[in-house]
């Protein structure tokens, strides 16, 4: 008889920046935390299972999801890149994950999507989950694929997913753009907790942002999660003092929500 809400949770991408934060934060929720990454994670800590895994390896992913109650999928490439590596990690990888989840009978996935699924909306627009996708690079395209695939697996097989369109999750904003997209680690953890513990989520898309002064994203379609951010980029406003300078109309990174992703790619 378990004394914690879950017997075993799987966290992929546990060696990444966000994964390292979640690796410690979610331990109180589960008797056993299975952590995975293509990178070396070191020895298992107390209450952990460590499984190194390439998401493009279907057999390895099937073994990875066996016996877990839910999956927190934060694995894959998290920046724009050439299509081939993104295809392997983010497209084939997320297919392998959902095929394995279906075969193993797992009923809930928390999927780390990205705000770059809608990066080609202008910074003057407010975007909600029902609006058309407008990815700003191959990375954004791969996250659109993941959202569509998770929708299919819910509609066809009833596997629930919360797609988290994460903004910029760092200890503090690094650029003026991140004053709008900032998601504190504390709010990230709370968003993941709400996504995992809400009794019924069906297929939900939620924007991952703190309570910042400026906002491009409308989270009303994820209101049932009960996510209420407590942090804000306001406390870092001294790092990026206001200016009356207008952005250069030729600078697309200043005109669109995707910021530098707009001008980075594509890479061939």
Task: Tell me what the structure shows.
With 268 residues, the protein is α/β, with parallel strands linked by helices. The protein has one domain (6-264): NAD(P)-binding Rossmann-like Domain (Rossmann fold). It has helices at residues 17-25, 58-65, 83-104, 138-157, 178-181, 185-197, 252-255, 260-264, and strands at residues 6-12, 30-37, 48-52, 70-73, 108-114, 127-128, 160-166, 203-208, 217-218. The strands form 2 sheets. A 7-stranded parallel β-sheet has the order 3-2-1-4-5-7-8, sandwiched between helices. Strands 6-9 form a two-stranded parallel sheet. β1, α1 (17-25) and β2 form a beta-alpha-beta unit. The chain is globular, with a radius of gyration of 18 Å.
Structure, briefly:
With 268 residues, this protein is an alpha/beta fold. Helix content is 32%, strand content 18%.
Features:
about 270 residues; alpha/beta; Rossmann fold; 7-stranded parallel sheet; two-stranded parallel ribbon; 8 helices; about 30% helix
C-alpha end-to-end distance? 53 Å
Percentage beta strand = 15-25%
CATH architecture: 3-Layer(aba) Sandwich
Give, in order, the helices and strands.
EHEEHEHEEHEHHEEHH
Strand runs, count: 9
Q: What characteristic shape results from the CA principal axes?
A: globular
Rg (C-alpha, Å): 18 Å
* CATH topology call: Rossmann fold
Give the low-pLDDT segments.
Answer: none
Name the average pLDDT.
Answer: 96
- Tally of separate helices: 8
Q: Which strand order do you get reading across the main beta sheet?
A: 3-2-1-4-5-7-8
What is the makeup of the main sheet?
7 strands, parallel
Helicity range = 25-40%
Q: Identify the CATH homologous superfamily.
A: NAD(P)-binding Rossmann-like Domain
């Amino acid at each position: 008889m378990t004394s914690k809400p879950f017997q075993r949770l799987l966290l992929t991408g546990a060696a990444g920046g966000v994964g390292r934060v979640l690796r410690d934060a979610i331990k109180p929720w589960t008797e056993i935390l299975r952590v995975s990454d293509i990178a070396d994670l070191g020895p298992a800590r107390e209450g952990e299972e460590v499984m190194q895994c390439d998401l493009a390896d279907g057999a390895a992913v099937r073994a990875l999801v066996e016996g877990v109650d839910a999956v927190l999928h934060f694995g894959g490439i998290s920046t724009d890149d050439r299509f081939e590596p993104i295809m392997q990690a983010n497209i084939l990888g997320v297919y392998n994950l959902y095929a394995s989840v279906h075969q193993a009978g797992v009923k809930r996935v928390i999927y780390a999507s990205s705000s770059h699924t809608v990066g080609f909306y202008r910074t003057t627009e407010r975007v909600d989950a029902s609006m058309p996708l407008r990815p700003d690079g191959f990375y954004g395209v791969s996250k659109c694929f993941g959202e569509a695939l998770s929708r299919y697996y819910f509609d066809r097989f009833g596997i629930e997913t919360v797609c988290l369109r994460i903004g910029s999750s760092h200890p503090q904003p690094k650029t003026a753009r991140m004053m709008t997209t900032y998601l504190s680690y504390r709010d990230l953890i709370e968003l993941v907790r709400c996504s995992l513990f809400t009794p019924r989520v069906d297929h939900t898309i939620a924007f991952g942002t703190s309570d910042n002064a400026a906002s491009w994203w409308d989270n009303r379609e994820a209101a049932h999660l009960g996510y209420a951010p407590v942090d804000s980029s306001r406390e870092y406003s001294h790092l990026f003092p206001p200016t009356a300078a207008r952005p250069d109309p030729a600078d697309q990174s200043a005109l669109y929500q995707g910021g530098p992703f707009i001008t980075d790619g594509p890479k061939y």
